[in-house]
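Morning!

As promised:
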Amino acid sequence: MTGLSVAPPAQMVEMRGIVKRFGDFTALHGVDLVVAEHEIHALLGENGAGKSTLMNILYGLYRPDSGTIRLKGQDAAIHSPRDAIARGIGMIHQHFMLIPPLTVAENVVLGDERSGPVLSQRALATRVRELEERFHIGVDPDAKVEDLPLGLQQRVEILKVLYRGSELLIFDEPTAVLTPQEVDELFAIVRTLRDEGKVVIFITHKLREVFAVTDRITVLRAGRNAGELVTTATSPSEIARLMVGRELRQVQARTPVTSSGAVLEIHGLEARSDRGARALQGIDLTVNAGEILGVAGVGGNGQSELAECVLGLREPTAGSITIGGADIAHDDPKRTRERGVAYVPEDRRAEGLVLAFTVADNFILGKQDHPPFSERGVLDDAAIRVNGDRLAKEFDVRPPNARAIVGNLSGGNQQKVVLGRELSEQPKLIVVSQPTRGLDIGSTEYVWERLLEQRARGCAVLLVSSELDEIRALSDRIAVMFEGRIVATLPAADATEERLGLLMAGHAEVAPA
Amino acid sequence: MNQEQAATTGPGTASPAPSVRQLTFQWAAGPAIPVLSVVIALLLGAIFVQLSGKDAIAAYSALVQGAFGTPYDITETLVSAIPLVLTGLAVAVAFRTGLFNIGAQGQLLVGALAAGWAGAQFATWPGIILMPVVILFGIAGGAFYGGIVGFLKAVRGVNEVITTIMLNYTIVFVMHWLLQAGPMTAQNALGTPASTPIGAGARLPVIIPNELVLFSRLHAGIILAAVAVVLFWFLLWRTPLGYQLRAVGLGPRAAAQAGIDPARHMVLVMAIAGGFAGLGGMIEVSGVFGRVYDGFSSSYGFDAIAVALLGKNSPLGIVFAALLFGAFVHGGAYMQSHAGISSNLVAIIQAFVLFVIAAETLVRALTRRRRGARKPVEAIA
Amino acid sequence: MTLEMLLGASVFAATLRLAAPIALAALGGTVTERSGVTYIALEGSMLVGCFFGVVAADRSHNVWIGLAVALLAGVLLAGLHAYASIALRADQIVSGMALNILALGLTTYLDYQMYGTTGTPADLPTLPDVQLGLLKGVPYLGDAIGSQNLMVWTMGGLVVLLQLFLFRTVLGLRLRAVGEHPRAAETVGIDVRRIRYAAVLASGALAALGGAYLSLGVAHSFTDGMTGGRGFIGLAAMIFGRWTPVGALAASLIFGYGNALSTSLQGASIGDVKVPVQLLGTLPYILTILAVAGFVGRSRPPAADGLPYETEGHA
């Protein structure tokens, strides 16, 4: 059944024709969103689909370039979060806006304390408890936020929003940092909220959440509406297809894999994220020589942490990482690189390059302390220059001036500098993360060609990307990551867009009978 | 004071606070900004002088006259500038790695104490052996004191601004004890607390003899200072270690993933910085005083910050800035005795210079943002 | 070395007297750093308070006018820092250093211009001591606290007031929020800038109070650079006292005690060894280093301390 725009009589939110541009990049191409009263509505899509942008507009953080917003039938101009809050819209951000050393009660009332100049902790706690009882949200008002696990911290965010009388609550990727129990508890709270007359919008990419708790769904894809559905009237497959369906580029013909043994083997890898959540929950994967293993998944499911662990930038809490049999899980980046590991990080500007250095200097980053670039404690400028010119030409850096400051190059050329540095030393394993993010088509194809070249050379490539195009164009095998686990590893030929979409959204596969 | 934002305590807290980075690395346009800062500061100083009822022109001409009027004055300006070059280098080399070294003052004193002790202890040794020994002691003393700061930062994540300020004061009191009641006390004609004089072999000779310039005190320390400047340049731009230090300062995360360990380099750079400052202390003892007087160096450390920032943390810039401040010091004394204007006008001008430099970062930050209106990548989803 | 030298009433009295200016500076530091701005020119605000208090008291023959002018001077200096740090988002350390140098240069310059080599007049009006008649004759207490200066008692009162303010009032809560997570505070509608301005200005006033006490209450004169680093000891006390007013007081008392000892133990010896009183001066600094390195319990500053803040650009 195709999605209908069912417009129930009482509409809480009506956003029509929303267009939003950032510079010459259009994030939203005229998007509609209709949310009814007493409803839990899912806003679904991959990274880059435009979900957060749309909600940031509703919450007054951005202004649309065109389009209208109506709340409860009235035109509404929302110029700031204060406007939004005044109109009864509250947002529970993905990154909590809480003050860690203050108590729960203090965090809830901050800014709107409704008390005389002197604060009474007891009065605050009582008020917060009343709120908690009404919505069945349990958390100790006198506890310090920094002592609470992330699941309880989220409840404080919810209480903040309810305290200010919000009628519409927007949750931005709420289950990203929660344990399974906490997720169920959150759903219970959300249902209570709806029963108490609130309207909830869930921004998510996870099918489980959508089917567990929502009433209607709006799917966005690449800044456009892809479908509006009633939850009970649709299926995971349909949604997955709407989320990822697109004209995929022709998968390039390539030589079949002549794999000659495993290069990288990861067993039971566990690690924590910077925020302390469990980012990797037991990863097993293998990358063979002469193959590209693509790790697909929506950003934030542990991919960054995986790459960092392999490189030695993050200490795993359990598990092993071996290269050619040697365990490198606890090695520092220098040691790991000595084993022939190259790394193309996802943030080329902050991690891949020293922007203030020249192209030639960036080409030797990490290699500056041994021949031919330095001899007996002195840098060999001539060798560095020659190397710089050679690599700039070989890797098509434009203009091919090794003395240019890297910070002034375009994104594509910056990435070529990174590639030149990492790929020129015949590595055994390349870990490459979001290599074409922000690049134009020409640069993207260039990067793909070089990676395929390395593969043909017999290198093992671990490719992490949230771009399905890229994964499907380059990978021999695809592993899908979801919530810190590999939920499936399949040969590229078997990876249809529907299947990948389901896996990326957390929909477990039914084993064949 | 804040521990860096990315992580709270512990090793690997490499990212320098953004404002420090802005201070040191965003000035692309040559000497324009430093010169402008000095000009503005001089103007503000002139306004101040007028407001306080004195004649600005008289003040400034006395200042210039005092600094450069006679050959003797020129040598004195140089004598004042020499320690500033070294402490300026001490601050600059740390800035290049993203660290704020306010401790040049303390590092200088430790170097002075070490050199003064060695010079007296081995006083009978011939100059050809004693001089290098004393130089080594000076450098080592300062390096040790600087290294502590780097170590605490690398291992415990302690903000170097706090530790350097605390250590500056600590050594002052230790010095009081050493020279007043402790093992380095010695008698001297002036009656002020001071150490045993160093041996003749440890004294830096005056290089411009009395025949050329009467009463000249310009000593061979100027050669050491020049060598230090060259070493600074050579280290940072001609050695792999220098490359690594600059990489940690300009791109700490890129450096880390390339295998350059930020923590180790922090310790190294602070030791190197301390070494420069310690050499400065040794030069003062060997070239000027001949012994360690309690409280002999009041402000070289703080002037050093202005010298480094004004000199944009580069060799030539630091030399010019040190000369400027040396001129201020010597010319200021003349201004006070001949024009009746307190030499502290110089300090006021210096403060204005620093203040203008501090505010400069905003201009830089604004021009940087306007140039790169990047599309937000992560923010949209 | 006798017990009297260590714990005598006069030592206690000296401790209070020496601790007061440090504590006032530390209180100032605490307030501003709790709001997220680092102000290392407490020394400078103290010094200008010292000097301009004397000048005003001299010219007006009234110590209260002197006190008021001292506060104003401290506030103005801090105001420069506030403008540079908050509006211009300048580096707060460099700005603080500049202001310290400015304060020293300025006061010394003006001292020379106004009082030349003769120095400040001997008949300056002074801040009165508070004579506790009730305690006259009471052993120990009578000598220890019976005639402390008004400023010492004011300092004590301010400690209590500021502790209550920071932790028991709405404004104090907002101030602490601004220092920990200014973005979060802004999203609930708090004016981060305004609170930070107020905090920095207040700290200038508090430090100046300490300075005025030194010149008008203790020395009854002004000499160049007479604060002698007390502003920095105040910083150390703030850090050691974990950024709370009560902690600042406790730390100041410890540091003041060390200072008092270095006088009372002058010439004393343990057996044959002379007590190295000069080394007592290192006490505040070494303790503070140990504290920040985490060897003496956990010492964590407000999370956003010292970082320039960009207000969220609204659409």
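Residues 3-129+143-292 of chain C form a domain with the ABC transporter involved in vitamin B12 uptake, BtuC fold (CATH 1.10.3470).

Hope this helps with the figure draft.
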